Amino acid sequence: MALVPYEEGRALQGLRRPTATYRFAGRTVRIRQDWERRGVAAVVWDAAVVLSAYLEMGGIDLRDRSVIELGAGTGLLGIVATLLGKGFFVCLEQFTTVVKLAFLRAHVTITDREPALEFLESNVWANLPSELHPRAVVKELTWGKDLGNFSPGAFDFILGADIIYLEETFAELLQTLEHLCSEQTVILLSCRIRYERDNNFLKMLKGRFSVNEVHYDYSRDVHIYKAQRHSHKDDF
């Protein structure tokens, strides 16, 4: 579940709307929201929008990559990752006239805790074209508890938007990141730094990974951090 606090003074009008509409990857993405019954995990927060826009800016090729989103909430980020992972290339074999069409599509695993899955699934399947349904899976993941259902180091990218709010989850989140990572895995976390505990998590993260801030959205006050195991420090 995407865990974020209520922000006093922030206009709640957009969060209380039954849907939030965006344009990503050449498609209209319409996310169902449910603030009244489900609270903060069932609305789209700025960190998910900013990270989705960052992925769309380019420089990160998700095609033919294995991607997992943690604490997906409404599913916007995982939906965008799946849409951006769609593509193909043409291979001309040397000395022949044979043309091969090879489809490169991301495999995206969109996760949250069990109570959030039904709502999450409804958004994911409503916004992905049918041909991309096999390339996305919605799966239960409670940090630190369901790791046996995920192969260690199986993912090229790990994505998370506004998932570093509750201090009591920090140790389990770090354990989960370490389990899912290989030395080549890139972690991208977007967040607004609201409290000192948010900085404390970043310090904990830096104790186990190489961490760099790769983007800052001034208008939304959202940071994006890239993390990799210490042996890999190169930027994109």
From TrEMBL:
<keyword id="KW-0489">Methyltransferase</keyword>
<protein>
    <recommendedName>
        <fullName>Protein N-lysine methyltransferase METTL21A</fullName>
    </recommendedName>
</protein>
<dbReference type="GO" id="GO:0032991">
    <property type="term" value="C:protein-containing complex"/>
</dbReference>
<dbReference type="GO" id="GO:0008168">
    <property type="term" value="F:methyltransferase activity"/>
</dbReference>
<dbReference type="GO" id="GO:0032259">
    <property type="term" value="P:methylation"/>
</dbReference>
<keyword id="KW-0949">S-adenosyl-L-methionine</keyword>
<dbReference type="InterPro" id="IPR029063">
    <property type="entry name" value="SAM-dependent_MTases_sf"/>
</dbReference>
<comment type="similarity">
    <text>Belongs to the methyltransferase superfamily. METTL21 family.</text>
</comment>
<dbReference type="InterPro" id="IPR019410">
    <property type="entry name" value="Methyltransf_16"/>
</dbReference>
<dbReference type="Pfam" id="PF10294">
    <property type="entry name" value="Methyltransf_16"/>
</dbReference>
<dbReference type="GO" id="GO:0005829">
    <property type="term" value="C:cytosol"/>
</dbReference>
<keyword id="KW-0963">Cytoplasm</keyword>
<keyword id="KW-0808">Transferase</keyword>
